[in-house]
Amino acid sequence: MDFTAIGWRGLIMVGVAIAALVLGAALLRLSRLRRDKPRQTAAATEPMLAPLPEAPVITPQASDFGEQLFRSGVEAELQQLRSEVAALKEELKLIKAARRVSPQYNEAMMLAQRGMDAQSVADQCGISVGEAELVLALSRNKQEYEDDGDNDTPWPAGS
Question: What is the count of structural domains for the chain?
């Protein structure tokens, strides 16, 4: 048999025949599933008709435990957020203090804000002790000014 004489028309006919066989097999399987399905569903529903065991009753203690657990989680998260806010406020205070000072004395001002003494500030920043004392005094005055700025009165009460 010579297969070189088969043209496009022959190839299309062979493809259609293969597709028809695959479609026929799929339809045969589908019809078998339809016939077997009522038997399977009847068998599957029989156990469902059996009475279900009675569900346990939730007592108020269990719901109280859930509320306590929720509250403790919320309180822990709130405490964490408060500590983060406090740290951010401290960092903001240091940034504001450093921004108002000459760039030459930024580090000295930050060390003064942290509570270091004049000699330590002078040694670490490479400035004289007099300059370090001046930076400490400015730092204290700014802190006192910021603390007093929270009051509603524009001048001290003793004046």
Answer: 2
